[in-house]
Design brief:
globular; three-stranded antiparallel sheet; 18 helices; mainly alpha; binds carboxymethyl coenzyme *A; single chain
Length: 426
Amino acid sequence: MTAKIEFDGKQYELPVTVGTENEHGIDISTLRSASGGLITLDRGYKNTGSCESAITFLDGEQGILRYRGYSIEELAENASFLEVAYLLIFGELPSQEKLDKFHQDIKDESNVDEEMKKILDGFPRSAHPMGVVSSLTSALVAFNPSSVDVSSEEDMYKSIVKLLAKFPVLCAWALRKRTGQPLDYGDSSLGYVENILKMMFKKANEDYKINPVVASALNKLLILHADHEQNCSASTVRIVGSSHAGLFVSISAGINALWGPLHGGANQAVIEMLEGIKADGGDTKKYMGKAKDKEDPFRLMGFGHRVYKNFDPRAKIIKKSADDVLGDLGIEDPVLDIAKGLEKEALEDDYFVKRKLYPNVDFYSGIIYRALGIPTEMFTVMFALGRLPGWIAQWREMRLKKEPIGRPRQIYVGENHRPYAEISNR
Ligand code: CMC
């Protein structure tokens, strides 16, 4: 199958790649050399496939999301986060034996060098935890220099296990610093998710009891966030990693990309928006009006998605989960009612219907995080904890496929050549 491009009286025939779900992509890799300079232009990469990937399939029109072929609904209902991490990174669901070994390898690497605490000390207590976590993730390289040069799958495995082990410790430290708690290490007798909770919330002078409702809700949220193919942060991880900069710094770059309010930072922005609406008397209509007003920069946070133009399957699961978790924990959150009211109005509003804007994964997730006792500034860090296996899987796939360094082209629209002007003549 081929596609033809005609330009300036000449035709160029280009191969078409077909994916396993019958997606078609025109392969333009020879276009520039064949045509003597012609490139494609696609702001925001809305129509550009940057790679072939076997990790995650999503169909935005039908609201389908699958990791390695398994539906997100089935995984969220049945799997553990660590199983899903293994699936995403290595391609298959692990046997019990493989899962146990994977978990043991992670536990064996879960110490973070004590010197790292000095770096953490340097941050003000008010520092946003996303900045702290991304800096500490980069700093891990200094203490694990061999993790950069990954010339074999075994080297990669070692780096991957180290990161899965140490990253939750860094996230917990970022929270503990903020809340003035002594830094803590994990408890190897616990599951991966339970251990995250204990590291975050254990008080110095009390035992920490795992609440199974909280652990199961967090397990589900982490699975729902675990990968989402070539989104902004995953693409960042791939492009940084394509220079062979190493896993830890590639992930650190991904964390920074996730931080923005148009991406993972939306979960914090949603709660702040809902709180703002509540404080302003709960007038959702006023905020709907603001969201539609092109002169007003306000956007309905947690609404809209680059790819989902029908519904976000993760949002459906999370909305139900929010009801269940708040019910199980006996929490009443007025902000949940505001969120439901806004959703109902938006789904019936012409502006949102025409533009196919639906609630996304971040619309209800903050309400659950809050019910689990997680402070608002930590919401995006929780997203990062969930997304870590996806980033790792994307990075590993890119390295194993020996992808070339990522380097987009541009169309230059600046000044033509002009002579240098002496400062006295400007
Ligand atoms: N509120 C009001 N209008 C919106 C919204 C919104 N949340 N989202 C999109 N629109 C409008 C936008 O103004 C544009 O209108 P028009 O065609 O009249 O110019 C149209 O819908 C298309 O929007 P776009 O910005 O061109 O779409 P995009 O694919 O570039 O952006 C998005 C996608 C997610 C960045 C955007 O929908 C948004 O800013 N949403 C709010 C932030 C948010 O919830 N982000 C989390 C995304 S899901 C999790 C993740 O990725 O991490």
